[in-house]
């Protein structure tokens, strides 16, 4: 009731409000929901190692003094074929595009630990960017803590930006670091002439010095020296609008304004990104009351967190066939939240896997989901899960 009242009521506008709507897009499982939770400072969006944990666009709201950041956490951009394979709603194909239409700035998240996909942006991401070239975009390289050879980040930056950042060419030169623990004899150092006055205070992007903390640059484990600002004579280049058909042979996008490197799951350098986002906010009325953390209803949050645990503990494609039916959602006599939910599965074998030997799997799912829900709602939660076959 309190959440509904805050969502329907008028926002408590400050004297000079500022707002920024941020769309976070990327391939499935790039870490979009994890980053969203870190920016919000609390777990609101479901997170799982499996793809397509997020099933619909949801808004998170982070309010700092007179500035409101509205985070549009979207499903991973995917193809119709993959959507059918994972039994995804048709809305999941459209939600990321709808979020782009609402956004003032877009964060493109790339999982650098995935060597199969990290060297190029997906066709769906490139189509999204080419459809909305007027929206400022920022490249965020995520999971850098999982990358043993940090100099690979240099190659990724060049490929994913097509050698252009903020309208200027990146300068690439070979260097040899005698003190490097890396076995590579010839590394690359990239520098970029981006005017310092255009950057956020404390923003650690491509002009970092070697004193920056881990996660923000390439001076990690002494693999290579950090990015340094250089002098590049090339004039800023105007980004030409790319037709969707042009994305077939593309690997990167030359329209990124900034590049950030972080480890969202540990919160490394998330504050740096947050400070940058706050500087990009423009004068405008708030859309939400300062007490709102998400546009989702409590029931939607509950369903998403329970599904997160189901995805975590069931193998392969099995969890995508589970249907959740809430039987009870009410407040108990002592203020506790009572939830009873039926998990409907299509096959007997799926039921056996979900229940587990002696009920071990379903008990673990209920225990972990209940704990997460207590952390979200800040009250005691009694969660009961039942498994049944689809009739």
List the helices and strands and how they pair.
Blueprint: H1 2-8, E1 18-26, H2 32-40, E2 58-64, E3 67-73, H3 80-85, H4 91-102, E4 105-111, H5 123-131, E5 137-142, H6 152-161, E6 164-165, E7 168-169, E8 171-175, E9 187-191, E10 256-262, H7 270-280, E11 282-283, H8 298-313, E12 323-331, E13 337-345, H9 348-355, H10 360-377, E14 381-389
Parallel strand pairs: 1-3, 1-4, 4-5, 5-10, 13-14
Antiparallel strand pairs: 1-11, 2-3, 6-7, 8-9, 12-13
GO biological process, one term: ribosomal small subunit assembly
Region (G5): 262-264
Region (G1): 26-33
Give the number of DSSP strands.
14
Approximate helicity band: 25-40%
Radius of gyration, in Å, reads: 22 Å
What CATH calls the topology of the largest domain is Rossmann fold
What distance lies between the first and last C-alpha atoms, to the nearest angstrom? 34 Å
**Average pLDDT number:** 76
> Which CATH architecture of the largest domain would you pick?
3-Layer(aba) Sandwich
Q: What would you call the structural class?
A: alpha/beta
Our count of helices gives 10
> Percent of residues in beta strands?
15-25%
CATH domain class of the largest domain = Alpha Beta
Can you say what the CATH homologous superfamily of the largest domain is? P-loop containing nucleotide triphosphate hydrolases
Low-confidence stretches: 78-94, 174-236
What's the helix-strand series? HEHEEHHEHEHEEEEEHEHEEHHE
Number of domains: 2
Write down the overall geometry.
Answer: globular
**Largest beta-sheet characterization:** 7 strands, mixed
